[in-house]
Amino acid sequence: MRIKGLNDKEQKCFNILKDGEPHTIAELKKPFLADGREHCKQVYEKGWGDREVDIQAQSFARNSLRRLVRDGWVEKAAYGTYKMTANGKRWVKDGKDATKSFGTKRGRKPMTDEEKAEAAKKRAKKPKKAAAKKTTKKASAKPASKPKKASKPKANVKAKSTKKNGVSTSKVKAAKAKAGKAAAKDKLEAAKARAANHAEEEASE
Fold first, then answer.
1. 103 and 176 share one domain
2. pLDDT value for 146
3. What is the DSSP string of the chain?
4. Angle between helices 50-70 and 8-17 (to 10 degrees)
5. What are phi and psi for residue 22, nearest 5 degrees?
6. d(CA 130, CA 91)
7. Which side of the chain, N or C, has fewer Cβ within a 10 Å radius?
């Protein structure tokens, strides 16, 4: 009994569970041991054995149960144990030949041999395309940006006079200089007056 919308691995699980009895993962993984061994040959260069094959077979079994559970065929009976649901048993009895998700994105038709061969060719070409993309990226890399021209120094700006207690510092300095000149002039005139008085005193003697 082939169910439309199930892939080959999902169909293997269905074939075991369609008897309506509970089955453990240990039972469900047995049909996937050969698939697990083939997978390990492709993935591992060395250092793999029965343990890795067993782990991969178990992974295939668990992944294959997902659609069966999601579409209502199968349910978890206990830890690590699965069985047909009441609906699943009825569908098997009625001879239902398509799963609920058939025809949707999640339930595509099983691939034909020609489609599988075409998909294998595309997968084989992918590494070359990736390499070509890398080469193109290197070739199209942006040239090093030109160094920026040194900006011309700005024209000297006259320094603003600072203020102290609200009065310009430059004005304070100018006032001090003016006062200093006036004081010096006064001293000079006083000295001249003293000299003239001294000369008059000497003449009178």
1. no
2. 61
3. -PPBT--HHHHHHHHHHTTSS-EEHHHHTGGGHHHHHHHHHHH-SSS--HHHHHHHHHHHHHHHHHHHHHTTSEEEEETTEEEE-HHHHHHHHHT--B-TTBTSTTBPPPPPHHHHHHHHHHHHHHHHHHHHHHHHHHHTPPPPPPPPPPPPPPPPPPPPPPEETTEEHHHHHHHHHHHHHHHHHHHHHHHHHHHHHHHHHHHH-
4. 80
5. -70, 140
6. 46
7. C
| Local confidence band at 17 (pLDDT 50, 70, 90 cut-offs) | very high
- End residue of a domain, out of 129, 155, 179: 129
Q: Which domain holds residue 100?
A: 8-129
Picking from 86, 80, 66, the residue whose alpha carbon sits closest to that of residue 5 is 66
Residue 3 included in any domain: no
pLDDT at 156 over 60: no
Q: How many structural domains is the chain composed of? A: 2
Residues 92 and 191 both lie in one domain? no
Q: Tell me if 149 is assigned to some domain.
A: no
CATH code of the domain in which 36 resides: 1.10.10
Please, which residues bridge with residue 163 across strands?
A: 168
Q: What is the mean pLDDT of the chain?
A: 79
Sign of CA dihedral 84, 90, 94, 99: negative
For residue 28, what pLDDT is reported? 96
Triad 130, 135, 137: Cα angle to 5°: 95
- The answer to whether residue 20 sits within a structural domain is yes
